[in-house]
Amino acid sequence: MESEHKPRPNPEPASARQTHGFQAEVRELLKLMIHSLYSHREIFLRELLSNASDACDRLRFAAIADAALLAEEPELAIRIDADPSAGTLTITDNGIGMTREEAIANLGTIARSGTAEFFRSLSGDEQKASQLIGQFGVGFYSAFIVAERVEVRSRKAGVPAQAGVRWESGADGEFTVETVTQPARGTAVTLHLKADAREFADALRVRGLIRRYSDHIGFAVRMRKQGEPREAASARAGTRGPEARPGTDMSGEASLEYEVVNQAKALWTLPRTQISDEEYRQFYQYLAHDFADPLAWSHNKVEGKREYISLLYLPARAPFDLWQREAARGLKLYVRRVFIMDDAEQFLPLYLRFVKGVVDCSDLPLNISRELLQQDPEVEAIRGGLAKRVLDLLARLAKDEPQKYATFWKEFGAVLKEGIAQDLPNQGALLPLLRFASTHASDNDPSVSLGDYLARMQSGQERIYYVIAETLEAARASPAIERLKERGLEVLLLAERIDEWVMGQLETYEGKRFKDAARGDLELGALASDADRQQHDAQLKESKGLLKRIKDALGERISEARLSERLRESPACLVLGEHDLPERMRRILAAAGQKTPQARPLLEVNVGHPLIRYLDGLTDPAQFAELAQLLYEQALLTEGGQLANAPEYVQRLNRLLVRLAAPQGAVS
Length: 668
Prior knowledge:
Blueprint: E1 18-21, H1 24-36, H2 43-65, E2 77-83, E3 88-93, H3 100-108, H4 115-120, H5 126-136, E4 147-155, E5 164-169, E6 174-180, E7 186-193, H6 203-213, E8 220-226, H7 230-237, E9 254-260, H8 277-288, E10 296-302, E11 308-314, E12 331-335, E13 338-344, E14 356-361, H9 370-375, H10 377-400, H11 402-422, H12 427-430, E15 437-438, H13 450-455, E16 463-468, H14 472-476, H15 482-486, E17 492-494, H16 499-503, E18 508-509, E19 512-516, H17 530-554, E20 560-563, E21 572-575, H18 583-591, E22 602-605, H19 610-617, H20 621-638, H21 646-661
Parallel strand pairs: 2-8, 12-14, 16-17, 16-19, 20-22
Antiparallel strand pairs: 1-6, 2-3, 3-7, 4-5, 4-7, 5-6, 8-9, 10-11, 11-14, 12-13, 15-17, 18-19, 21-22
């Protein structure tokens, strides 16, 4: 099947005007732009200026290898022309430009993988949708929020003027393209504004948006100088001039001269004392395509053996593709103020992939590639330094602004946990940043730090107890922690898929060992009194025969039946060995195609429970075996396991209920 953006059959030469159909995903995107983002339509200018800035950046980078590309017009800049009478707005850059083929490919299709994921992420929330547009790199199409027709004229740097291209579309499912003579390199995007969007042809309105969204892009944004008010000019001339046209706001006719309307200086190069908090926030919004303010930021200049500047931000919410390993991530990389690449992931470990920002290095070569970045020892050293900066920033946020840190943890806590296993040198800095739900509070908010837990430990307690389950509610109700709760011992509750893996990497925190309450012995140590031990020994002596009968009845399903030190309300529970894989982890590995050995858990029984006393009194071997199996299956379900034969389990349960409900001797 032919691609949707291929031209219709046409005997005319390739340079002639041709009509193409948009890719299906683009048509969907245009529909979203036109019908769903009206209240956030000013984002189009941010996106088009970002594209123009990127084009200038890419030409400057290409000119490192071929200086002739810049010879025609050495100063890179962006120009904006607003024409209220014509109802147009034109954004022009003298950057890298496009060929005819690139215009078709870049403006007619979305070539990036994961397009379907982008559309699945749209929930009807206009603000979220407008953020996704920028994050996904399809910002050009935001022009159609305000324009009924968009015209693009472009010429690639280094090609003759006759090789220019003109692209045009009215967002009607098609676009036209033709080869034209374009004297200057670069790209000019002209928006023919809708009737209800003529405000964006007002020069003062546009200037305000530039200062809001793009004040600190690294290139000058120029607009025509505004003349003096008409009334003053008329009075000086001794005549009364005509009324100002709608949209000029008494600013008079625009001059033919252009002036810079943004700061045009990279924000990160300025001293911190010269930058206001509002400017930091505005730069983040430009950099991250995010309407929300960042939670925090860190701006640092390192001098000495290696020199670099970093400006790192913590977003307030997770991007839609946070869990896609192939998604773009990383920092914007500059070398001596020259843009090198977006998404330089080599400067931060994977578990910090949510961080946005810029790193500007003085010691890397300008022709550095992604492959060389992976091998450069300077990059590795900078990576270590930046990781520490982020962790220090998080520690300050947790200490000084706990509510903001709670927001961060809700959005990115599961990602940060990856660092426990991925970044062993920084594990000590990561541990205080972890947050847990616990039995100390009745809610399931993850607000407990390890420092909080240690401060509440009982005298003689040597273990940090935790339990992992499918949900926090299941963890809180786990039979494995019944005795701990009865004694008032706090238990950390975990329920994320990553928790089993993360907790397996932890041994101690400030001298106290972590202890999974569902594995091995509880290791109560000094918390267990002599009376507790005497009672346990007495019960064990009385129940040896029962435990042997249970083991014989269950056979290879369990490794041992033993008296429980955990249970107070439940009749039985399964306990894994210290190094056995839990059922949850086995399922995850099995889904990934990995074979895992079947664990044989211990079955702990609560000999004081009525069901266990009833079991002990059964003399019929078949009934005993059936009830023992029923108790095993209940314990398996409680820990999140799966039954081999659920219908048989239900039948066994029904037979037991009938037997217990019937008058004594009525059921055989």
